[in-house]
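Q: Hi! First time doing this. I have a protein sequence and I read that you can turn it into a structure. Is that right? Here it is:
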Amino acid sequence: MQRFQYLLWFAHEHVSFRLHEIEAIASILKIPIKWIEPPSDKPWYLIELPSEEAVQKLSARSVTMRRAIQLWADEPTVPRLHASLKEKCLNGLLEPYKLKSFKVDVDLFCNSQTQEEKLERIESFSYMPFQGHVDLKNPDVTFQFIEYYGLDPKIVPENPVRTFFGRVVSESGRSLIHELSLKKRKFIGNTSMDPQLSLLMANLGKVSNGDLVLDPFVGSGSLLVAAAKFGGHVIGTDIDFLMLHGRTRPTRKQTRHIARKDESIEANMIQYSCVDKYIDVIVADSALPFWRSDVEFDCILADPPYGIREPTERIGSKESLPIVKKEGSPVHFPSKVEYGLNEIVKDLMCFSSKHLKLYGRLLFWVPVFRQDYDDAQMARHSCFKLIGNCEQVLTTFTARRLLVYEKIKMPQDTDECSSAIPTASTFREKYFTHGNENRLTRKQKKAEAAKNKEIWFAKLNNVNVK
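A: Yes, that's right. Below is the predicted 3D structure, encoded as structure tokens:
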């Protein structure tokens, strides 16, 4: 079978998610990938694929990739790249495209260029026998020239360390990020997830047409929207009655004095034309599962609360009062109590071991302090295999990790779940303690800088400063 070489060109963000996303999409589409180079943190992957259709399907779902390029030249310097292209043009490489309208895009990674420098680079390809006209808006074919200057913006070499040229085969699915923008979304909350991360979770969860997807901490439903966009039938649960019924205080600053109206997760589904994939949302406590034993999900996506902007709670009472039912009244539930992250994760994994299909995927986020992070703290369960552990840096001292698990066996009575994730109260306490210390340090540095400035001016004017 003939295979073709392609360069997958990525946006330089969420780097640790790239490989897991590409492998998951390839698995969903049953596309065999052969690596020309081992995957790395550089903003590209070099691969071989069986057809152009395969790379188009792969890129159409990816939200970390920018575009897929059929590789024509890959050289360490610009002169060698031009020499290689001249030779290939003589051998008829450009023949199928020379009468078509075209444009040449130029991308410098870890460097910048003026418009004049960009035009100069484009003109350097004038030896290529183009006969079609230039069309910057809607060309028949787009060519891509890339100069790579390394990963360190503080140390930029005079010349690129690697160069690429090729024909753009397809754009990625990143347009979906803008389509699902929270700025335009009808219903959002304090913790509504960024569209790109929501779509990444759906891709890493291998959500595809007809899948049944659950979010047990649904909030305003960002994960349901992303999963529905990839064909999943979605359902969510949450303990927050007011959130699910759109009665919380509006999040947008300009409308906080106006009560919510016609806002709900269903309204979002209607907005994005995927209401046919929406099953429902249910007010429920994830610590008290209510599902029938034979209910099975294809994928479970979750972003549990961390105790910072949303409380971590479950049904219960500090006095251990029983749940009672008064005659002539509905069931009475005692007040809510703290639900530690460690407990949340253990309950989620035990629930998923029973209600996730074999080889289905469970994904959830956990917050960590970067200096204290230890792989051993991450949850383990005998029914699951850890597929991915991807970091999103939040501040200089905090991050959160997306854990991706695949169910590898059916549950048994001897199954064990281990986790050493700090409780919500511990994380909250450390979060604000570090934040206050950080603010105090910045204040002290600012005062010290002002004092030094005052001393410098005093010396300049021969004035004594106390």
